[in-house]
Description:
By secondary structure, the chain is mainly beta. It is built from no helices and three strands. The chain has strands at 7-10, 18-19, 55-58.
Amino acid sequence: xxxxxxxxxxxxxxxxxxxxxxxxxxxxxxxxxxxxxxxxxxxxxxxxxxxxxxxxxxx
Length: 59
Ligand SMILES: [Zn+2]
């Protein structure tokens, strides 16, 4: 069974940005296929600037 990469959503008030590992994050120069867990520790939400801790996995 292969591990699926999860999408993560920014929980900051009124943000709701979703990080999709299949798309990456152009604004932060993250290429496609990078799991959220593998993002750099200083990754920030491209919309509101929240840190990784503000993100929660979604189905
Ligand atoms: Zn955000």
